[in-house]
Design a protein that fits this description.
This protein has about 260 residues and is of the alpha/beta class. The protein has a single domain, classed as TIM Barrel (Alpha-Beta Barrel), CATH 3.20.20.70. It contains 12 helices and 8 strands. α1 packs parallel to α2, α5 crosses α7 and α7 crosses α9. The longest helix is centred in the last third of the chain and has 19 residues. Bound molecules: 1,3-dihydroxyacetonephosphate (13P). The site of 1,3-dihydroxyacetonephosphate has 14 residues, from β8.
């Protein structure tokens, strides 16, 4: 099955507009003339979306550079109205946003997002034709308690409740073991491959084998230039969602270069 790998930078709460500008200038110059067989995505904070949109719209139009897609890190499950601090999917669309990260473990644990809220956000994103990057993953206690498969199955089943096959095909799953996020501890490639194969088996139960085989599943959690190739060589890993190592143009580029050459 030919799944185009997708490498996405999740900057979290880092880089305002001027730092975004510096990053993009440097990254585009490194990207010049390169044609990696993968998708490249950047998810900046909301306030940096206009700057990123401006720069990439011009760059994608005129440069001989690899196109870069824009992602948001979150969206509201509501259309508009009295939701202080929230951002709607239609507002995101104004800034050429293609993807939206939904259900990141930091949103789940710090902001109390439940599977039901995440499900509502996935639906809202699809209404606006945004592509969800739907994050799932277990804590260390859950893994050590033998709950890995139960946790992943529940997150997938509840998060994708009433999501059509057509909408699933526009969705990317990101498996991010919570214990590997920002800790420097990466899942071994065996641990990651086992979890990804399990995720695909749940998707098969929910949507059938043919659809499951078409869904891209990214790995996230301490992905670095020196482990990207090994992780991406796993048959069920289709790219990476990268936090810390995506903040430097050079390391983000090296992850893409090392990972792309080895994707299944
Ligand atoms: P790190 O790459 O910093 O571990 O973060 C992973 C992550 O949470 C990406 O969404």
């Amino acid at each position: 099955m030919n799944r185009k790998p997708i490498f996405a930078a999740n900057w979290k709460m880092n880089k305002g507009a001027s730092e975004t500008e510096d990053f993009v200038k440097s990254f585009l110059s490194k990207l010049q003339g390169q044609d990696f067989p993968c998708e490249i995505v950047i998810a900046p904070p909301f306030v940096s979306l206009p700057k990123l949109a401006d720069m990439l719209h011009n760059a994608n139009a005129v440069q001989n550079a690899h196109a870069i897609q824009i992602a948001a890190q979150n969206c509201s499950q509501f259309d508009n109205g009295a939701y202080t601090g929230e951002t709607s999917v239609l507002m995101l669309r104004e800034f050429y946003v293609h993807y939206v990260i939904i259900g990141h473990s930091e949103r789940r644990s710090i902001y109390g997002e439940s599977d039901a809220i995440i499900n509502a956000k996935i639906k809202k994103a699809r209404e606006a034709n945004l592509k969800p990057i739907f994050c799932i993953g277990e804590t260390l206690a859950e893994r050590e308690g033998g709950m890995l498969e139960t946790v992943l199955r529940t997150q997938l089943t509840d998060g994708l409740k009433d999501i059509s096959e057509k909408d699933l095909l526009e969705t990317v799953i990101a498996y991010e073991p919570v214990w590997a996020i920002g800790t420097g501890v990466t899942a071994t490639s065996d641990q990651a491959q086992d979890a990804h194969a399990f995720v695909r088996s749940v998707l098969k139960d929910l949507y059938g084998a043919e659809t499951a085989a078409r869904i891209r599943i990214q790995y996230g959690g301490s992905v670095k230039p020196n482990n990207a190739a090994e992780l991406m060589a796993c048959p069920d890993i289709d790219g990476a969602l990268i936090g810390g190592a995506s903040l430097e143009p050079q390391s983000f580029m090296e992850i893409i270069r090392n990972g792309c050459g080895h994707s299944a």
